[in-house]
Specification:
The chain is built from ten helices and 13 strands. It is 42% helix and 25% strand. It is α/β, with parallel strands linked by helices and 291 residues long. The chain folds into three domains: 5-87, Arc Repressor Mutant, subunit A; 91-161 and 263-286, 3-Layer(aba) Sandwich (D-Maltodextrin-Binding Protein, domain 2); 164-261, 3-Layer(aba) Sandwich (D-Maltodextrin-Binding Protein, domain 2). Strands 3, 4, 5, 6, 8, 9, 10, 11 and 13 form a nine-stranded mixed beta sheet that branches. A two-stranded antiparallel ribbon has the order 1-2. 33% of the residues are buried.
Length: 291
């Protein structure tokens, strides 16, 4: 005869409520049903569990059963809570993002993610693309969002968004707002993102297509810093359109034959099982269709 979990609950209720009828009322059971549970337990163990007469009291065997029942039911409650966590995201999720998607894409996803999954503490680490991918390979983060395609055998990637870069000059520059040819930019100074940045790579590749070998006079670690340097007249910058906002200190410079488009890419480690939280984050990112 197996031990009944419901029978354990009924027995503890009898002791707490002081009678079979009171236990029945608490648990929504008839008194005969409560009595049947008690009889089944006593037959199962071959001992009397209650002292009959007056308020219900446990025999020594009943006290032993009650102590075990409390521990068993507590463990069952813990088990149920833990198993729910495997079907509903919870805990801490470490996400890595390179600078540009970390500035213009991930915050929107993170806001929606936190609203959907309040039991997850989302921690986003922002670095350049190379550092972000290194962190993913070393399992310091579980999911990454970077600004270029990834060719690494241990990683799986997919484009989730399209980003446009634009050339900018100071609003006071004579070329501001105009269209120029690549030849017009010969020997003009450029302000660039640091090496290892996907924005830097996309900029250099785009300029190379139209025959521009940029003369880099300054390297900076963020798009906002580049905009600030360009506004001060340091040189030409290339930054994501979405980082400009209503910035009035710089103006777009159109270079004939040149357009900068690059993807935002979701990256995970191949064959590494993701936590429910990471799966949910990746799914939410994938819902964002490339523009």
């Amino acid at each position: 005869m197996s031990i009944s979990i419901q029978g354990l609950r009924v027995f503890l209720s009898i002791l707490e409520q002081g009678s079979l009828s009171a236990a029945g009322r608490q648990m929504g059971l008839s008194q005969p049903a409560v009595s049947n549970h008690l009889d089944t337990q006593e037959k199962r163990f071959g001992v009397a569990l209650l002292v009959r007469g007056g308020r219900a009291r446990a025999t020594p065997a009943g006290e032993c059963l009650a102590n075990h029942a409390r521990r068993v039911l507590e463990e069952i409650s813990n088990l149920e809570e833990d198993m729910v966590h495997y079907s509903a995201p919870y805990g801490r999720l470490l996400v890595g993002a390179s600078t540009t998607p970390g500035e213009v894409f991930v915050p929107h996803v993170a806001s929606e993610f936190s609203a959907r999954y309040p039991d997850v503490m989302l921690d986003v680490e922002i670095a350049d693309t190379e550092e972000t991918l290194k962190a993913l390979l070393e399992r310091e983060i579980e999911v990454a969002v970077v600004g270029r395609e990834v060719d690494q055998p241990r990683l799986d990637s997919r484009a989730i968004e399209q980003d446009e870069l634009v050339s900018v000059v100071a609003a006071t520059d004579p070329l501001a707002g105009s269209e120029v040819t690549p030849e017009d930019l010969a020997n003009r100074p450029f302000v660039m993102r640091e090496k290892g940045s996907a924005t830097r790579q996309a900029t250099e590749e785009g300029l190379a297509i139209v025959g521009i070998a940029p003369r880099v006079v300054m390297e900076l670690g963020s798009n906002a810093a580049i905009v600030g340097a360009v506004a001060e007249g340091v040189g030409i910058g290339v930054v994501p359109t979405r980082t400009l906002g209503s910035e009035g200190r710089v103006r777009q410079l159109r270079i004939r034959g040149l357009s900068f488009l690059r993807p935002f890419v979701l990256v995970v480690e191949r064959d590494r099982p993701l936590s429910p939280a990471a799966e949910a984050f990746a799914t939410l990112c994938a819902e964002k269709k490339p523009q």
